[in-house]
Specification:
The chain has helices at about 10-35, 40-55, 60-85, 90-165, 165-185, 190-220, 230-240, 245-250, 265-280, 340-350, and strands spanning about 225-230, 250-255, 260-265, 290-295, 300-305, 355-360, 365-370. The protein is α+β, with helices and mostly antiparallel strands and about 375 residues long. Strands 2-4-5-7-6 form a five-stranded mixed β-sheet. Helix 1 packs antiparallel against helix 2 (about 40-55), helix 2 (about 40-55) packs antiparallel against helix 3 and helix 6 packs parallel to helix 10. The protein is elongated, with a radius of gyration of 53 Å. The chain starts with 11 loop residues before the first helix and ends with a strand.
Length: about 375
Amino acid sequence: GGTPAQPRPWPGPRIGDAVVGLAAAAAAMVVAALAGRVGTAGAATAGLLSAAATALGLRRAAPAAATGAGAMVGAVLVAVEVTVGHLPLTLALVDGAAVAGATAAASVATRREARRDAAAAASSTAVLTLSRSLAGTVEELHALNADLEAANADLRQFGYVVSHDLGEPLRTMSGFARLLRTEVGAAPGSTADEWLTNIDEAAVRMQRMIDDLRAYTMAGQADLASEDVALADTVADATDNLAAAIAERGALITSSGLPTVRGDRSMLTLVMQNLLANAIKFTPTPPRIDVTGAPAAGGRWRVTVSDDGIGIDPARTDRAFALFGRLQAREAYPGTGLGLAICKRVVERHGGAIDIGPRPGARGTVVTIELPAS
């Protein structure tokens, strides 16, 4: 009473396609393996697996047959070409491209090597030229150094001549002026007394200048000791050397925070003595002088010597350190104008710097020294 069962369709076409694909793939795999083409054998193997899957009904058969057939055709062509001893056209093209690429790469490498060789040659030439130039410069420096040493020797000899040979005539001149005063009996206030006084004072000034020139020469040429120097000790030494002037003027000298530096104690004492002497000389009222120390940039120390004297014109500070750089009239403030020049020379030989200017916010002068720390 039910609907009669329909007959199942003949699976012949599907099974036929699968069988064809399976056979083609298997043949392609064997041929490709015999021909030594690993890539084609792999493709044929893939076709074989595809055909097997199709034969089991896992997917449609037509694509499997096509895959297997394509792999078999490729493998057969390869086998034929190998058998007759000819490379495939595709492989020839690939080989040609490879050869061309290798040739191009070799050409590029050759050009690069040529450029490197040229650059190396140019560098060698530059180095040789520089070496010759430096050799010439070194020879010139040696010659200049020899000339400088000779000039320094002449300067030392000049200092000796000035301090000794010229000092003796001055002492003779001053002595004869005193004898002449006694011999002629020049009355005080007379013209003869005035003339003789001028001679004596001129001899004293000249002797002072000779002494300062010798000190300046020594400051620039003498060998410097290298030792730890407490600047407080240099202030004490300078104060002892100036005891008479300090007592005469009623000067008060204070110091604080002074560091220890590396240098020559006698030369640094000379610097401090000149600065204190200037502060005493250029202060009309009883001088008040303060010497202080404080750290500065770059591992250095700053030392200041300030007074309450007549001060200094900011526009003329550069002249203060010149040889014989007097800023005041000799009649009002006697001196040779070498004190600050000596200080500058000593400080610079110690690797330091010195400056001078008005005292900020008050009357007076401030001298600032910077020296390397010990």
